[in-house]
Amino acid sequence: MKWVHFCLVKFVDLAFNAFRKEEENHYRGCTMGIRTVEEYKASLRDGRRVYIRGEKVEDVTRHPILGVSVDTVAQGFALTASEDPEVRNLFRA
After folding, report:
1. What is the helix (H) or strand (E) element at residue 51, kind and residue range?
2. Sequential DSSP letters for 30-50
3. Is pLDDT at 42 greater than 60 in this prediction?
4. Which of 23, 37, 75, 79 is the most buried (most CB within 10 A)?
5. Best CA proximity match to 75, nearest among 15, 20, 17
6. 2-89 is classed CATH 1.10.3140.10
7. pLDDT for residue 81 is more than 90
8. Helix, strand, coil shares of the chain as percentages rounded to 5?
9. How confident is the model at residue 71 (pLDDT cuts 50, 70, 90)?
10. Nearest to 30 by CA among 22, 19, 42, 40
């Protein structure tokens, strides 16, 4: 269970860094938006070697345990693209 927690923390860290990068771009006058859900998931399919319970994970986005963490973080990306400005503003500093 500690390993799953570690993986979730790592995925959340990656998402946080993406949100922070988007804010930095905002203050520099860049208009580049945050990643989409598809871009986020594609970025995790980069050939990294991930093992859980001694088994190699071919695709973390489709793994029965890690995929839940990926989907949870991906929902943050989905919310940033919400049509509702009140929801979008929850992700702005």
Report:
1. strand 50-52
2. --PPPPPHHHHHHHH-SS--E
3. yes
4. 37
5. 15
6. yes
7. no
8. 60, 5, 35
9. very high
10. 22
